[in-house]
Amino acid sequence: MMLMASTRLWTVRVWWPTLFIKPSGLRCPPERPFSTHTPLPQLPVPPLKHTLERYLLALQPLVTPEELEQTRQMVREFSRPRSIGLKLQDRLERRSRRTENWLTDWWLQSAYLECRLPLAVHSNPAVVLPKQDYNDWKGQLRFAAKLIAGVLDFKSKVDRQTLQVKHIRGKPVCMDLYSKILSSCRIPGPKHDTLINYGYMRSPPTHVTVVRNFQFFHLDVYNSDGSPLTVDQIHMQLQRIRNLSWKTDKEPLGVLTSDHRNTWGQAYNTLMKDKLNRESVRAIQKSIFTVCLDSPVLKISEEKYSSRMGAQMLHGGGSYSNSGNRWFDKTLQFIVGEDGSCGVIYEQSSSEGPPIATILDHVLDYCKDPDTVRAPMIPLPLPKKLYFYITPEIKRDIEHAKQNLDILVNDLDISCFTYRNFGKDFPKQHGMSPDSFVQMALQLAYFRMYKELCATCESVSMRNFHLGRTDVIRSASTDSLEFVKSMDDTEKEALKGMAIDRHLLGLKLQAIEEGLSVPEIFMDTSFAVATHWRLSTGQVPARTDCVMCFGPMVPDGYGVWYNPLEDHINFSVSAFNCCEETNAEWFSKSLEVALMDMQNLVLETSSQTA
Predict the structure, then answer these.
(1) Which SS3 state, helix, strand or coil, does residue 91 take?
(2) Structural domains in the chain, sorted by start
(3) What is the pTM of this model?
């Protein structure tokens, strides 16, 4: 069923890598967790029997009876007395006792820093925010100034640890990620990347990066006394940046960061040989965050606007549009278009969707408030333009990156839409989980299109544990009715740390770390099918009327993200054009029909039982 593009060498995103590289050169800050009323529990290691039983259940709708029986035999061998499975389980439990979180370091490496696919589309999620009420460069700069001030206001709460602790089902969650989002950057390498947070240095960064017309600027956002610039001061500085960047540079250097990680890692080493380039790159990497002042894109119908904006936020539109206005390695980039479009793209080795949604809710609330502080009459230094020395070799690297990026841009198929028949209130009124309801609709939509179920993952936050990140809920089951029931049960299991996928990952990585052969259970057909996520899904609820977008995890799959609001649901669906069997718009239409049919079924059932 998988079709490969002739123009691109595909490497499926790896969740269980065949090689684990120790984090040599990984420079992460010492832990500085937020104060909470009670300490958070450690992430547990689920019992081996529990995980293997649930693994076999998850395989039932996905593989043939013969394949399932073969896997059952492997599971029996893996878990018999004195087996490799029990040995690995024991070692994993030992690791749990001597670390703060047995999964965190492994997950950072295997899921992110060792992944070699381009960050653009394949890894970095984006958020499309509501179109703003302006349509020229003057409005663009006013809004960007307010946005920057709003992020600095959020940063002050993070720095003072006064940010309100979030809760899931009444329990506090780990706030550790908030201090890692700002002032951090991913650094490319020829074989694996590193992640650096500059906020914990003796002299933390006091500037942001602003990029316009492919030109990067160092903008100090704090006065000499440590106070943040006012909105008026930031606005004046942005006007000066506009005056300094009136002409588009010939070389969109930022597209280098969109390339395959090995390729970008090699080009990075070439770029950094020059002192001027090193200073400019370091300024970008060390900045608190980046603001991309984009040029307007071609006008499109209102119906297609949100889909076009989803693509723009994910990749910038290509080398001759706004993709040169990005530094995809930077953890947090705010995109402000001259045409009123705005959004965010983030590098997720430092964060997950919910903390980003929290930042956005805060910033947009801040932007709604009228200005109260006027600019003091203090002269400010001119924003510093960052210059680069482009050698013929670097120019060739840029040209190759432009070609690869434009292929990726043309391959992305994305459909963003708002379902308006109901929102999260409707399932709640009928005693159902809104998330389970949507997940069931996704299964129904897929089955109607392909006459089969597929491996489906829904990202679930594990931040109710110390240093927790994510695990996945498996949404495919053998019966639609049991699916709805099992979704609630499965979600509770995941929130208890009892989901199966990260546990299986830990067992495999434990074997690799000890130099053992990878057990057969991870090498058979069933495991490959079970981890080939044709439906990768996620929910990031935000108060803001926005939608998150991300690319599919496999070439013949879909990436579906949704934000359920009270009376409507925002969706984004992505696929790749290189696969003739997938189509984002077709899946969107199938999903809409599935939601309507399920609503009608609920209403009919309710009327019969009334």
Answers:
(1) helix
(2) 111-413 (3.30.559.70)
(3) 0.89
